Amino acid sequence: MRQYADGSGREAVESELFAHRFSAIAWQMGEALRRTALSVNVKERLDFSCALLDPGGELVVNAPHIPVHLGALGLCVRAVKSVLSLEPGDVAVTNHPGFGGSHLPDVTVISPVFGGKAGESSRQGSLLGYVASRAHHAEIGGSRPGSMPPGARSLAEEGVVLEPQYLIRAGSPQWSEMRRRLSGGPFPSRAVEENLADLAAAVAANQRGIVALRALAQKHGDATVLHYMRALKMLSEARVREALRGLGDGRYRATEFLDDGSPLVVALDLSDGHGVLDFTGSAPVHPGNLNATPAVVRSVVLYAFRLLLDRPLPLNEGLLRTVRLEIPEGILNPPFPEDPTMAPAVVGGNVETSQRLVDTLLKALGVAACSQGTMNNVLFGNDRFGYYETVCGGCGAGPDFDGESAVHSHMTNTAITDPEILEHRYPVRLERFSIRPSSGGTGRHRGGDGVVREFLFLEPVSLTILSQHRVDPPYGAAGGGSGALGRQVVKRSSGEEQMLEGIDGCEIGPGDRLLLETPGGGGWGAAESEEGE
Q1: Number of structural domains, the chain?
Q2: Helices 10-36 and 192-220, axial angle in degrees (round to 10)
């Protein structure tokens, strides 16, 4: 059996068991959220994450849900509990990027967990930690349906902003206030009932986590549970330090450019398994919506470091203890004034800048060629609904493997809506969904191929595209070829074709089609024919 724990004997066995017990709690939460949610985005696409955190608000375990969510949850819980007193019977909610949020569609629900003996009220126990659920709401307001307006210049344009607040206070639900918030403001939600239903599902998921963690503590004792929370993070820290030592001391640096030319720079200085990861040189605050947050950056780093390990450790914040992050103000650390009309737009930073930042860090580490580097966000809707999906593509190859074709990669890990459900719930027909041949980069190991996805629309909708690698192709490594660029074109019912930019939008009429071609991954190493020349 592969172990989470080092050493031997009883402590190693108990560490292994508790790691699985903690992970099972997050799994149970995720299943409860999936089963009780209303929206297609949560129930079918599985665009959500659940996690268990310790009393300090540090991530302990997660279910293997969405990487861009999970690394941010610790920062979010710590930010929320610094402004709200979370007591037994309380549930907090926020989507504010200045409080550890990622972008407004991702709504986080946080519940404290208190221990105590069986039969006792939770008010008599000490704090065991927190459980948190983050789910993407496909519609939460904004200037365009789907809440990812391509032309947004401020946070207010992207939807309803929920600064940290109580969803339940001392056992008393605040649903009327939440309904008022979702229905108000300059750009209210177009799907308030669906929002409320998914928030209720998140509360139910958290309650499942509370019950499970309390039961674990009642069986083994609060002190034992807290001990193994610390032990799991310490093991993760040790494993990352070991992996970084294996890389060798020195400076690892790389630069990538977003399609609009904005630079992303990473420089990792390592010495004996410790280091400083500096993002100085990255672009200033972005004028559009590609600003990320420190929470998103932490998710990227945590995920990339986890890739260095060859053991099945769950994502937790022990993975970050060996490296200090330096994130200067700019595209990766924008300021958030209180007035959302003055705050920067961020919706593309979570989905697109995060993907490009992963590939920049992997480029510096020499781990793999560039994957598709985008989530190929497709959104459409009208005043009745908003629909959202991310579309798969090609993965980058590595020194001893080909890249996978037609899969989600890196910071996204969602499913894609089944055609039957898509066509039943929305005014659209899926005409084609296939692998895009020869779109992966050439090399000794080929990059994975992207896909072709074609929609036929049956009624007027507003269409939005948020994507990358439409100008700069996914890089190959060690002499491998680049992956193919992505592209998207609207084919009008009149026969006219309209090419869309990587971040773009337009109005769609009945009979119009969207043809989407996603990028391939980069290849690794020169192909044998090239080596022989």
Answers
A1: 2
A2: 160
Looking at the structure, tell me whether residues 521 and 376 fall in a common domain: yes
Q: Has residue 162 been placed in a domain?
A: yes
Answer yes or no: do 379 and 230 share one domain: no
- Establish if 296 belongs to a structural domain: no
Q: Does residue 267 register a pLDDT over 90? A: yes
Domain boundary, last residue among 178, 204, 235: 235
Residue 149 lies in a domain: yes
Can you tell me the mean pLDDT for 368-382? Answer: 96
Is 432:485 a contact under the CB 8 Å cutoff? no
Last residue of a domain, one of 195, 212, 235: 235
- In sequence order, what E strands does 330-450 have? 377-381, 386-389, 428-435
**Phi, psi angles (nearest 5°) of residue 434:** -150, 165
Following CA atoms 119, 121, 126, 131 in sequence, which dihedral angle do they give, to the nearest 10 degrees? 100
Spatial contact of 203 and 36, defined as CB atoms under 8 Å apart: no
Domain limits for position 458: 368-533
Whether residue 425 lies inside any domain: the answer is yes
Q: Which runs of E-coded beta strand occur in 25-94?
A: 48-53, 59-62, 91-94
Give the helix ranges, DSSP H, for 221-284. Answer: 222-247
Average pLDDT, the chain: 93
Tell me the average pLDDT across 251-259: 98
Q: Across-strand partners of 114?
A: 127
End-to-end CA distance of the chain: 47
Cross-strand partners of 466 = 377, 503
Quick: pLDDT tens for 36-69. 999 998 999 888 999 999 999 999 988 766 777 7
Nearest to 63 by CA among 32, 107, 95: 32
Measured distance CA(138)–CA(146) in Å, rounded: 6
Mapped onto helix, strand or coil, the DSSP state of residue 274 is strand
